[in-house]
Amino acid sequence: MSSLGMQMPGRQRVRPSGVNVYTGLMLGTVACLIGAIAFVLLAGMKVGPGSGVMSALTIHPEGREVRLESR
Amino acid sequence: MHILTKLLVVLTAVLGVLLSGLTIAYTSNADAIRAELDGARARAANAEATAQRSAATEASARDALERQVESLQASLTETRTSMNALRTDNNRLLAENKRLNIAEQAYQTSIDDYAARIDSMVEVLRGFQVEIGTLRQRELALQRRELELTDRLADLESEIEAKDGTLRALREQVVELEQTLAGGPAAGRAEAVATAPSSFRARVLRVQRDANNDLLVSIDAGTNDRLANRMRLNVVREGRFLGTVTLERVDLNESVGRLTLRVPDAPAITSGDLVLPASL
Q1: pLDDT, tens digit (0-9, with 9 covering 90-100), for B57-106
Q2: Cα–Cα distance measured from residue A28 to residue A17, given in angstroms and rounded to the nearest whole number
Q3: Interface membership of B39 toward A (CB under 8 Å)
Q4: d(CA B136, CA B272)
Q5: Residue A39: burial class (beta carbons within 10 Å; 0-12, 13-18, 19+)
Q6: By CA distance, what is B16's nearest residue in A?
Q7: Contacts of B32 in chain A (CB under 8 A)
């Protein structure tokens, strides 16, 4: 019932959640992911077809000659 | 859970999805690039091998061309040398041609001179020809005269020979008559009356004596010359009558006769004396 936002009488007092160690770990994880994404994005832009940020997510067509834009 | 933690979890999930997509794309592109790189390296190796072969072929062709160039240069040098020699020969021939032209002019002058001389000599020869014709006419007349004189001389000689034959026959008759009167050896042999042909001529081969001390004369004529036994022949030397021989043995080419009449003061008969028919 508590999941439905209903407060029952006699229930245990709900203490407000605060920032704990998991929050710090998640924050570090997010920072690492952001850095990894930045590095992979830059490297993917170098090996991907075409130009722009979306070239890092594009795959070279099969059976065709690989053409890289001069950067 | 704090709202910040929730937000970070959501953000982590989103970033994880994004990172996985980027990683997949990056890996695929890296594989494609790696395959392309391998192909490019293979093509580069092939191209390099082809280039090396081409370079080797080109080097051999270059060597051949260099050798050809060297041979052509040698040929060119030889040709230049030959050309220089030919130029030298040409100059020499030109000089010789000039000299021959000068000599030709001199010879032409000489030829003209000789032609003029020949013309004059022709005129002289024409005069000589006329003169020779005249001389030949005179010579023919003289030859005709000489023939006439020769015929006349032959007639006279024939007449002289006939007179000599008559004289010789008369002498024989005189000698025979004298011996007959003196009782000589020819007295018993008067029966020898055959005569030799008038054109008969012979020579005495040898003279010898028989048992009766009569002279036997051998001559180089016989039956082939129409001689016969008992035929009478005269022996003469240099036109002088020496005696008469009567044949007693006649062979084909040799005969033996006995001296039946001999001139008293005549020289002895020897080999080589002329023998004539008794009628001459």
Answers
A1: 999 999 999 999 999 999 999 999 999 999 999 999 999 999 999 999 99
A2: 20
A3: no
A4: 46
A5: exposed
A6: A33
A7: 59-60, 66
Res. B249: pLDDT tops 50: yes
Query: How distant, in Å, are the alpha carbons of A20, A39, A44, B12, B77 from that of A25?
Result: 9, 21, 28, 11, 95
Chain B residues in contact with A33 by the CB 8 A cut-off are 12, 15-16, 19
- What are the angstrom distances between the C-alpha of B45 and each of B35, B55, B196? 15, 15, 140
**C-alpha distance from B7 to closest chain A C-alpha (Å):** 9
Q: Are B262 and B243 in contact (CB under 8 A)?
A: yes
How many helices (H) does chain A have, and how many strands (E)? 1, 0
Interface test mutation site (partner B, options A20, A32, A34, A40, max chain B beta carbons within 10 A): A40
User: Under an 8 A CB cutoff, do A58 and B25 touch?
Assistant: yes
C-alpha B178: how far from chain center: 75
| CB atoms A40 and B1 under 8 Å | no
Distance, in Å, from the CA atom of A37 to the CA atom of A44, rounded to the nearest integer, reads 10
Decide if A33 touches B, using CB distance below 8 A.
Answer: yes
Give the pTM: 0.37
Q: Are A58 and A48 in contact (CB under 8 A)?
A: yes
